Amino acid sequence: MKKSAVWFLCASVTLLPATGMAAPASEPAATPEPLTESDTTFSENVSALNGFEITISKLGAKQAKRRKIQEMAEDALKMHTANQKALLALTRKHGLTLHEEMSPDEQQIADTLKTESGAKFERDFLDIEAQATSDALAMFQNEAESASDPDLKAYASSTADTLQTHLADTMKLGANKPSR
């Protein structure tokens, strides 16, 4: 009799989850909608541009002789690093993984800049920085007006303001006017 009671107890305990006694399943978290093609393209372009800006800003901080240019490069490095982190966090929520590699043209520009020094380096660095910032500013202003995702729109708007200031600072240091 004891054997059958133990067997019955074990059998009934193993059946508990099957009879609705199991803990309720947790509801899956709501996943944000994927970004539109336009927002995705913007995000991918900005990620690559941030990689380029981070690379040349490191060069500017290291190779520039004038302290003001070094400081501007250090500020640009901080700005683009923070910008990249914010962009990656925002796009990750939408399931988008971004690359940070530079284009072959950007890599060539960075490689050429690495070989320069003195006044030539500073002049070229400032001109490249002004052009890249001007190009980025146009992208950010456009995205601030047309983004479908409200978080990406806010990100683009606030970053455009920062880029406008950075471009003005670069011009004050002697950069040639960008071609746009």
From TrEMBL:
Residues 1-22 form the signal peptide. It holds the Pfam family DUF4142. Gene3D superfamilies: 1.20.1260.10. It comes from the Bacteria. Keywords: Signal. Residues 38-172 form the DUF4142 domain. PANTHER family: BLR2558 PROTEIN. This is DUF4142 domain-containing protein. It comes from Komagataeibacter saccharivorans. The lineage of its organism: Bacteria, Pseudomonadati, Pseudomonadota, Alphaproteobacteria, Acetobacterales.
